[in-house]
Amino acid sequence: MPKLFPASLSPEVSRPLLAEAERIARVAPWEFMSDLELLGMRDEATGRLHVASILGTLGTMFAVVIYRNDAGLRWIHDMATNRRVPDPDAGLEDMDCLKIEWCRKKELQKSDLNTLAAAGFKPKGQGPVWPRFESTRPGWYPWGVTDVEARLMTELLRKVARFVCLREKSRPLHKEPLEALVPIIPAGEESTLRAEDIEWLPFVPPPAPLPEPVALSACEQESLLKLPIRHDSIVEIVAPLTPTLAFVDEKEGRPCLARATIIVDRATHYVLCAKIAHGAAPLRDATGPALTEAFRNAKSRPERIHVDNARLAATLRPTCEAIRVPLCQAPLEAAPSAWAEFEEHFSHQRPR
C-alpha cells in the first residue's frame, strides 16, 4: 500500500476539539474510572446515541473511545457483558468508533503533527501527553477524523468532561451490572453537572441483522446445477477481513481492509479459488463470485460445504440450497492453514 496520510484538521476545527481533550487529560479519569463505566451521550443534532469508554487503568493506553452506530454499540455492549478480551476478527467486522488517544510524540503521524502545529498546541509534560484522533469504520483501515467527525467529537468530549469532573469528586455512579444502564450526559458547563441531572438508560443495542444473501442469476444457477456432484468432496470456505492486504480506495482517498475469500477442498487442501474484495462491501459481493468461480474451476459441485461462522452461513445458505449442496457450520480442517499461507505470502510481497 502506498504511503498515505489523513488530511490535517484546520485550526478552526481542531482548537475546540483540543480544548476538550485537554480538559479530560487534566482530570486523568483513567486513574479512578474503570473502562466498563460506560458513558452515554446523544448527538444534539440527531439524537443518536453514542457510548464512550475510558481506557487507561492498566497504564498501557490512555484514551477515550466513543462507539457509534448499531455495530459499534453492539461491540462495546458485548465486551462489557462478557468481561472478555474482544475477538480481533469481530473487531475488524464490527468496530465503529471515534477515538482520542494520548501517546508519545514519536507515535504521531505527519498529519497529527500538522494539526497540532496549526492549532498552536503543545502539551505540558512528557510521555503519553500528545493527543491523536482516529476514526474506525467496519471494513476500513483506522484513519484520521474528518471535519464533521471532529465537530461531533468536540460536542461529545465536552459531555465526557462534564461526567469525569463530577465522577472525580464522587463515588462511582454506576451500579452492577455495569453494562445494564448507561448515564445519558446532558449538555452544559463542565462544572455544573449534578448526579440528579443524569438520565439512566437501559443499554440494549438492536440485534445484528442477517447479512444479505448471495443472489445468483438464473443463468449462473442453471450453469452450476449442470455440474456433477463429487461425493468424495467437502469444500471449506473462509472470508475474513485482514489489515495485511489493505489497499487504497481512490474515491475515498483512504485505505480499506481487504476481504479474502478462500475456498479449499478438504481432502487435497487444493485452493479452488482465492478472491480479494473491498472490506466495506457486503459479504455477499465477496463470496458469491468466489463460489461460482470455485465450482467452475473444479468442474463439479462438492458433496458438502463447511463454514465456521453464522454470518458466512447466512450469506451462503440460500444459494447452497438453490444449487442443492448442503451447507454446514462446523469446525474447519483445511481452510485455516490455507488462509494463513495466503496471508503470509502477501505480507512478504508488500513493499517495505
List the helices and strands and how they pair.
Elements: H1 11-27, E1 39-42, E2 49-55, E3 62-67, H2 69-82, H3 88-94, E4 97-103, H4 110-118, E5 130-136, H5 147-169, E6 181-184, E7 199-202, H6 218-225, E8 229-238, E9 241-249, E10 254-265, E11 271-278, H7 283-298, E12 301-307, H8 310-322, E13 327-329, H9 335-349
Parallel strand pairs: 8-12, 12-13
Antiparallel strand pairs: 1-2, 2-3, 3-4, 4-5, 6-7, 8-10, 9-10, 10-11
Helix pairs in contact: 1-5
Biggest beta-sheet profile: 6 strands, mixed
What fraction strand?
Answer: 25-35%
Shape: elongated
Low-pLDDT residue spans: none
Amino-to-carboxy terminus distance: 9 Å
Number of helices: 9
Mean pLDDT: 92
Number of strands: 13
Helix-strand makeup class: alpha+beta
Order of SSEs: HEEEHHEHEHEEHEEEEHEHEH
Share of helical residues? 25-40%
Report the radius of gyration as a whole number of Å: 24 Å
Oligomeric state of shown chains = single chain
